[in-house]
Specification:
It is built from 12 helices and 12 strands. By secondary structure, it is α+β, with helices and mostly antiparallel strands. The strands form 3 sheets. Strands 1, 2, 3, 4, 5, 6, 7 and 8 form an 8-stranded mixed β-sheet that branches. It has a two-stranded parallel sheet with strand order 9-12. A two-stranded antiparallel sheet has the order 10-11. A hairpin with a 4-residue loop joins β3 and β4. It is elongated and about 90 Å long. The protein starts with 6 loop residues before the first strand and ends with a helix.
Length: 371
């Protein structure tokens, strides 16, 4: 549940909404109380920005801790330190992961496990078969246990009407398995949901002209690397500007986008030729850094890079397919050498990532024959 804990980070100049919750990190045998930041594009910040799959590995390894050993040392940075005495943890790796997944769905306006349960309840209310009741019960049990009492948004009754409904008369509600649901309780639950349906039907609804869309696309990271040769299956490494993919501009061919970019940045023709034929993209950058830059380069470089990226993916259809396979994901491009071109953990401007998204959109427009 997001509640009032609203935050954001900036990616591609776009505010990516997020929220946070408390968590313990186990690092070097010590436990640290910290904040776990969860973002709409599926990235989680737990002392570093990671994908959901990477977060799950940290969770299951115990680095993000849900078990707190008696006698273990813990601290909250700059606030206090203590030793656990008879600790009781409320979470488990499975429960915390389910809550994080629900939070990402909620941040994107998608049905989370609670939404899916309530949809199953609507199906049951429309056709009260035992199969539909069983489906609603399964959907209820799929809600993280810590979140079930928020399902109806009714802090007086909490989720009791929901439990009674999915259990049915004579059934056992999950929170009171020793007490069978009475017919009177069941009829009250039915009346509760009928009234709830009438209230929801009166709520206003609005669909944007462009149709309902995800507010924030999932993100992918193109990690900083120094590719030395073309690979049969390069994956996202092919999206690196220094990936060996020759591009031709006019009557000149450059070994990579990086070679072309740095060569075009240099003012002196002799130095430009040396940059263009450097052994690697990294060496091309080093040579260019030592040479005088063209006048006005800093104001023209984004347009130059856009032209070079278009050439790369137009001239290499196989690499264009890799770019297109990223769908509508936000592209976070790490560049240890530039806060302008790289995202660098949200501290850079990520212009390479932005331009890759632009070129990807242009490729899609071409495929759809949209002029």
């Amino acid at each position: 549940m997001i509640g009032n804990r609203i935050t954001h980070r900036t990616a591609d100049g776009v505010r990516v909404p997020g929220t946070w919750r408390h968590a313990f990190i186990c690092n070097g045998g010590s436990y640290f109380l910290t904040d776990l930041f969860i973002y709409a594009d599926g990235l989680v910040d737990c002392w570093e920005l990671v994908t959901l799959d990477e977060f799950e590995k940290k969770l299951r390894s115990g680095w993000v801790a849900t078990t707190l050993p008696d006698g273990a040392r813990a601290s909250a940075h700059h606030l206090a330190s203590w030793t656990f005495g008879e600790p009781h943890a409320w979470s488990t790796p499975e429960l915390l992961l389910a809550e994080v997944r629900d939070t990402i769905d909620e941040l994107n306006g998608r049905p989370d496990s609670t939404g899916r349960c309530l949809a199953a309840v609507d199906v049951f209310m429309g056709d009260r078969t035992e199969d539909n009741r069983a489906a609603a019960l399964a959907a209820y049990l799929a809600i993280p246990e810590t979140m079930r009492h928020y399902a109806l948004g009714d802090m007086d009754r909490k989720d009791r009407p929901l439990q009674v409904l999915v259990a049915g008369p004579g059934g056992r509600a999950p929170d009171r398995p020793e007490e069978p649901v009475t017919q009177e309780e069941y009829e009250e639950a039915i009346a509760y949901f009928e009234e709830r349906a009438r209230w929801l039907a009166q709520a206003p609804s609005r669909v944007p002209a462009d149709g309902a869309v995800d507010s924030v696309a999932p993100a992918i990271k193109v990690y900083h690397s120094y590719p030395q040769r073309a690979l049969e299956h390069p994956g996202k490494r092919a999206l690196r500007n220094d990936y060996p993919a020759p591009i031709t501009l006019g009557d000149l061919t450059y070994p990579s986008v990086a070679h072309a970019y740095w060569a075009l940045s240099v003012a002196e023709p002799q130095a430009r030729a040396a940059v263009a034929t450097a052994e690697t993209g990294a060496k091309a950058r080093t040579l260019a850094a030592a040479a005088p830059r063209r006048e006005g380069w800093d104001r023209a470089r984004s347009a130059v890079m856009a032209r070079l990226l278009r050439a790369k993916y137009e001239q290499h259809p196989d690499l264009a397919e890799i770019l297109l396979s990223t769908g509508d994901a936000t592209v976070l491009y790490d560049d240890a050498d530039s806060g302008f071109w790289g995202d660098n953990g949200g501290r850079g401007r990520n212009w390479t990532g932005r331009l890759l998204e632009l070129v990807r959109s242009e490729l899609l427009a071409g495929q759809a024959h949209i002029d």
